[in-house]
Amino acid sequence: MTVTAAVDSYLRHVAIERGLSANTVAAYRRDLAIYGRWLAAADLTVLAGITSQHISEFVRFLASREESPLTAASIARILSSVRGFHRFLLEEGVVETDVAHESKPPKLGTRLPKAISVEQVTALLAATDGDDVQSQRDKALLELLYATGARVSEVVALNVDDVLEPEVVRLTGKGDKQRIVPVGSFARTAIDTWLVRGRPLLSGRGKATPALFLGLRGQRVSRQNAWLIIRAAAERAGLEGHVSPHTLRHSFATHLLEGGADVRVVQELLGHSSVATTQIYTLVTADTLRDMYTTAHPRARRPPVSSAPPVSSAPPVSSAPLVPVPAPDPA
After folding, report:
1. For the chain, which terminal residue's Cβ has fewer other Cβ atoms within 10 angstroms, N or C?
2. Which among 214, 213, 197, 196 is positioned nearest to 205, based on CA atoms?
3. Are 43 and 57 a contacting pair, CB within 8 Å?
4. Active site residue 272
5. Structural domain includes residue 266
6. Is 249 marked active-site?
7. Structural domain span for residue 231
């Protein structure tokens, strides 16, 4: 079997038999396309000719290429796709050995998620105020992202029927796993305004669609559109630095933990399969608490260095003359 045919078979497997989302399958396709091009350049078109040494060389190629350098996280993701591909070939009996089994990804540094403050979130949301249909949509979109901590792909995939009563929304996350997340009053008000006043004006401009958020032509809002909406709002709010849909997700989790929410509850709200993924946010809040403590506590900082000579702890010596003590009388 050729490499190209094997990749096509693997992508059908993950899409149909494993039921992975379209976004995940697309990511596998991109990663394996990079791998396939490297194999073709090395004149490796037959699976039987690939060895563990080739996998190691591929990882070194990813780490050293100059035209478009990759981060350690990107290299690890591509290698994960390659390992899954070769594991599939072994399980299907296409090859006799999993040549990628022993391959190791580069070590990843601990990268804390970037959140913005409550005041900055308020300014970002206020930047979408307005009575026009576009402002109503943008307000509802951003309020919902911050209220639920949802991924942008989860929000743009919402249908009107996914907005449930009372004040909850049904999100579909990775692996088509559904979860019910509460929606605060601010977000619910913005969504109601959009559904009653804004969405009907746009729904007639295109084909009938159950999508909750619509573009100006009546079609479902894409992830790229959502990014542009948030970027424009951040510019109007005067926020410096990179603000993305994931910034609101990070801020949602950080603010909940700072407010005393249990990490297990935040895990459920975010849709994380493992609490270890959620616990990265506890490092952010711990850093914040440490900074506040150092600033506020009177004895949290080092004492200033004094130039005065050290003071002895021994008692002072008196300059008065000594008075002899009489000896006791003999018994």
Report:
1. C
2. 214
3. no
4. yes
5. yes
6. yes
7. 118-290
